[in-house]
Amino acid sequence: VDSALLSLACYSGIGFALCKRLLQEDAGVQLCLACRNMQKATATKAMLLAAHPSAQVSLVHLDVSSLESILWAASEIQHRFQHLDYLFLNAGIMPNTHVNFKALISGLFSGEAVHMLSTAEGLLTQEDSVTSDGLQEVFETNLFGHFILIRQLEPLLCRLEKPSQLIWTSSSNARKSAFSLMDYQHSKGKESYSSSKYATDLASVALNKHFNKQGLYSSVVCPGLVMTNLTYGILPSFFWKLLMPVMWIIRFFTNTYTLTPYNGAEAQVWLVRQKPESLDALTKYHSCTSPLGGNYVESRKMDVDEEIAERFYQKLLELEKQVLARLTVPLSPK
Ligand SMILES: NC(=O)C1=CN([C@@H]2O[C@H](COP(=O)(O)OP(=O)(O)OC[C@H]3O[C@@H](n4cnc5c(N)ncnc54)[C@H](OP(=O)(O)O)[C@@H]3O)[C@@H](O)[C@H]2O)C=CC1
Ligand SMILES: CC(C)=CCC[C@@H](C)[C@H]1CC[C@H]2C3=C(CC[C@]12C)[C@@]1(C)CCC(=O)C[C@@H]1CC3
């Protein structure tokens, strides 16, 4: 197969909505779903094929929190495809999240209420853990695993005559002050999610610097606040259902309450239609929804320093060298 579109984490949430939307736009795309739960992935493939019987959908097992799994998946993908047009880096976790209700209530009565409700600044903390690779789980899952995958797939992504696009799912919760170059895995703090998403923004900027000349382009999107398993891990789903009328009202004050996975995937779908050369490396593309439910994309400058992005990129390369040298086990599919 010459060209394909590889999407990570597709059987629920924004990833699944993205796959459905891409097939609606062009049923001829070759879709490869990279997921860690093959049972759910097989059911997802069946659902996609039921709606688009002539579509070409394949599956590959991938756990982005395991280097062994990433290397195996990358070699499998290289056997199947010669080129990837798009790689959607969408897998993400926000584990053991605690909401600071005191800050939420006082924030609602401050001048910063809209900013707080769209970025979650000051509202959330997480308890992170360490993976079997010895890395912080949120860092490895949300960023580093994807980074290693990209590096392994370079031969399928870097072709000057046929550009490829990396599309990362970042967040409005990405925050510079949560990230530190000295502790880029965020092993000491309690805002691992914000840190990992800011690290995503930095990595994308640096990847553009290093790979544009080889025909590889990277962009970050923000899907807005979307009701998915990730948000149901923060507050129970019945609570979100009770909040729904409040959230429709909040839409009059901020366009970031996209709420459905379909709306949240707007910026990813929009990016597929753009010429990658025309995109700005320092811009984040936000899925937005108006009070009446209309979807559109807004471009916003990221709070990213290119020199920090480069220093972070060098640290990622160093870490890559270390972890790959530690991996001595023979690779086999899970
Ligand atoms: N929902 C929201 O409001 C927002 C979400 N985002 C981002 O959007 C992306 C998609 O999340 P969303 O759709 O909301 O939530 P979901 O929980 O529905 O989707 C996350 C997906 O990531 C997969 N995943 C998690 N860990 C791994 C892993 N180790 N290896 C492979 N796949 C993995 C999950 O698979 P599994 O089911 O097996 O766990 C799941 O399919 C994430 O990056 C998230 O950070 C950004 C901004 C807002
Ligand atoms: C009235 C109301 C909407 C109450 C909910 C309060 C909070 C639980 C939410 C307010 C802003 C939300 C938010 C997220 C999670 C839930 C909130 C903190 C995200 C962090 C979810 C994942 C992201 O990547 C960005 C979101 C930003 C906004």
UniProtKB/TrEMBL annotation:
<dbReference type="GO" id="GO:0047024">
    <property type="term" value="F:5-alpha-androstane-3-beta,17-beta-diol dehydrogenase (NADP+) activity"/>
</dbReference>
<dbReference type="GO" id="GO:0030154">
    <property type="term" value="P:cell differentiation"/>
</dbReference>
<keyword id="KW-0560">Oxidoreductase</keyword>
<comment type="pathway">
    <text>Steroid biosynthesis; estrogen biosynthesis.</text>
</comment>
<keyword id="KW-0752">Steroid biosynthesis</keyword>
<dbReference type="GO" id="GO:0004303">
    <property type="term" value="F:estradiol 17-beta-dehydrogenase [NAD(P)+] activity"/>
</dbReference>
<dbReference type="GO" id="GO:0005789">
    <property type="term" value="C:endoplasmic reticulum membrane"/>
</dbReference>
<dbReference type="GO" id="GO:0048706">
    <property type="term" value="P:embryonic skeletal system development"/>
</dbReference>
<keyword id="KW-0444">Lipid biosynthesis</keyword>
<keyword id="KW-0325">Glycoprotein</keyword>
<comment type="similarity">
    <text>Belongs to the short-chain dehydrogenases/reductases (SDR) family. ERG27 subfamily.</text>
</comment>
<keyword id="KW-0472">Membrane</keyword>
<keyword id="KW-1133">Transmembrane helix</keyword>
<keyword id="KW-0443">Lipid metabolism</keyword>
<keyword id="KW-0520">NAD</keyword>
<dbReference type="GO" id="GO:0008209">
    <property type="term" value="P:androgen metabolic process"/>
</dbReference>
<dbReference type="Pfam" id="PF00106">
    <property type="entry name" value="adh_short"/>
</dbReference>
<keyword id="KW-0256">Endoplasmic reticulum</keyword>
<dbReference type="GO" id="GO:0006703">
    <property type="term" value="P:estrogen biosynthetic process"/>
</dbReference>
<comment type="pathway">
    <text>Steroid biosynthesis; zymosterol biosynthesis; zymosterol from lanosterol: step 5/6.</text>
</comment>
<dbReference type="InterPro" id="IPR052834">
    <property type="entry name" value="3KSR/17beta-HSD"/>
</dbReference>
<dbReference type="InterPro" id="IPR036291">
    <property type="entry name" value="NAD(P)-bd_dom_sf"/>
</dbReference>
<protein>
    <recommendedName>
        <fullName>3-keto-steroid reductase/17-beta-hydroxysteroid dehydrogenase 7</fullName>
        <ecNumber>1.1.1.210</ecNumber>
        <ecNumber>1.1.1.270</ecNumber>
        <ecNumber>1.1.1.62</ecNumber>
    </recommendedName>
</protein>
<dbReference type="InterPro" id="IPR002347">
    <property type="entry name" value="SDR_fam"/>
</dbReference>
<comment type="subunit">
    <text>Binds to the short form of prolactin receptor.</text>
</comment>
<dbReference type="GO" id="GO:0048568">
    <property type="term" value="P:embryonic organ development"/>
</dbReference>
<keyword id="KW-0812">Transmembrane</keyword>
<dbReference type="GO" id="GO:0006695">
    <property type="term" value="P:cholesterol biosynthetic process"/>
</dbReference>
<dbReference type="GO" id="GO:0007420">
    <property type="term" value="P:brain development"/>
</dbReference>
<dbReference type="GO" id="GO:0000253">
    <property type="term" value="F:3-beta-hydroxysteroid 3-dehydrogenase (NADP+) activity"/>
</dbReference>
<keyword id="KW-0521">NADP</keyword>
